[in-house]
Amino acid sequence: MSRAPATLLAGNVAVSLGPDGAPMATLTHPAGGSCQVSLPGVRVTTWKGADGVERLAGGPDGGLLSHGLEGIIASTDWTIESLVGGGGDGDSLAFSAFAEARSADGVPVRSRAEVRLWAGRLALSLEVAHAGGEEMEWEEEEDPAGVADERRAKRSRILPLPLPDVGLQGSLCCNEAAGSVGGVGGYQDGTKDAFDKTGVRLETMGFSVVKSASSGSVMQFKTLAPTEIALQPGETVSGSLQLTLC
After folding, report:
1. Which residue from 17, 141, 215, 239 has the fewest beta carbons nearer than 10 Å?
2. In which domain of life is the source organism classified (predicted)?
């Protein structure tokens, strides 16, 4: 697993090693509120407003993270890209990470995830690109000794990258007590009533299909692309969600 220095610091954003030994970013807004982001999977594990109330449900499937990249980008493929410490009370803090990987078919993939925090507001964005086109542009002349391997690599670069379920997912507490995800039933189309129980308003861009499922004090949700995605070389899909305290 990649390791961060003992501490990275940019204003109100600091990166240190979490309890599991993985890099963990802590964003603390000057106007109140904070969140923590675990680098593996770029998972937001905790989010609190100025009142100190935890809004994200914990557990193995809890928090806020990408969806639909399983088997393509491993949680350990992510590396820290940038920290933005912000300035005044109205500014945002930001943490971003970048990943390079290959699908099971050998298609080169690049992805970026960014977390932004304001006072009373949290956003997560995701961008996934089929990097085959870019690799072909910079391709060097073939080595005769490796022609067969190079041909296989070329074929993988022109294959599409299927992302049928790409988007973002999250788990919210439905009351003031922090919950733990487990035993949540089947997902249904997201409704305003479902989010009313969390005290949080959801807004999406790009990943506009919302599905949710509730169990006790926990509500899980997904925001997905409106159609099944199959990226061609050089194409990119992106989207974001924003959670605002009501």
Report:
1. 141
2. Eukaryota
> Which whole-number Å values give the CA distances from 229 to 81, 112, 150, 162, 169, in the listed order?
26, 17, 27, 6, 17
Q: Is 75 helix (H, G, I), strand (E, B) or coil?
A: helix
- pLDDT value at 20 more than 70: yes
For 36, counting Cβ atoms within 10 Å of its Cβ (0-12 exposed, 13-18 middle, 19+ buried), the class is: buried
The predicted-structure confidence for 169-186, as pLDDT tens digits, reads as follows 999 998 644 444 444 456
Count the neighbouring beta carbons within 10 Å of the beta carbon of residue 34.
Answer: 17
213 burial class (0-12, 13-18, 19+ CB within 10 angstroms)?
middle
pTM of this structure:
0.84
Domain ranges of the chain: 7-245
